[in-house]
Amino acid sequence: MRISLENVTVRFPIYDARARSFKRTVMAAATGGRFVDNNPTKKTIVEALHDISLNIEKGERVALIGGNGAGKTTLLRVLAGVYVPEEGTVVVEGHVTSLLDSMLGMDGESTGYENMYLRGLFLGLTPQKIEALSEEIAEFSELGHFLDMPVRTYSSGMTLRLAFSISTILKPEILLMDEWMSVGDERFKKKAEERLEKFVGDAGILVIATHDLGLVDRLATRRVILEHGTITSIT
Asked: Could you read off the pLDDT of 58-87 as tens digits, one per residue?
């Protein structure tokens, strides 16, 4: 189980050159990346990650630290396979569980039970495994008869509770998180926190992006500092 990145660079094109000034402002705020092609007759390129090299071994807890737009989320999405780098190589050995968007793969028109399958399949579970875990997911979510209803009828808190119950059902090998999750009302929150602590503790590798330096001190074995899409230090 390991992660290896060598000289990884990620670029995003902006095709409407006429709006490049506005997009420059927006993209700089959103990604922190650098503009590397400003020719008005061509597309503009934002370099969101530049020449990233990083090796992570089993047992490590790595915190990605940096301001908004530093490249933390982009790097997590590269590790999750969402973004393919334009340059460099990415090697991920182990099954990745991503909590970057805990509701990805869920459908508002489907019932809670049906969404167990949809989200479970997205996480790489087999239908048989989802079937075996469905009772445990239902019990932890405390959603009762609502699980037979379309998710579009749920409150946002209920939807997040279901997504959390599904996403944290199995021991992860490589766990990716964009900030620490906070789930549900005060009554549900305590048991969710306990489950999340165990979920994170069981992970073979944890990579988390966070602004919470207290959390970093508590969890991290290494700190990776990012600025404008580049690694400035590793401690």
From this structure: 999 999 999 988 999 999 999 999 999 999
What's the domain count of the chain? 1
Task: Give the domain extent around 52.
Answer: 2-95+210-234
Angle between the N-to-C axes of helices 156-167 and 112-122, in degrees from 0 to 180, rounded to the nearest 10 = 50
In a domain, 63, yes or no: yes
Asked if residue 19 belongs to a domain, the reply is yes
At 45, phi and psi to the nearest 5? -115, 130
Determine the angle formed by the axes of helices 127-141 and 156-167, rounding to 10 degrees.
Answer: 130
Contact of 211 with 100, CB cutoff 8 Å: no
pTM higher than 0.85: no
Report the DSSP beta bridge partners of residue 91. Answer: 4
Q: What angle (nearest 5°) sits at the alpha carbon of residue 30, between those of residues 25 and 35? A: 55
The encoded tokens of residue 27 equal 């993209």
- CATH number for position 229: 3.40.50.300
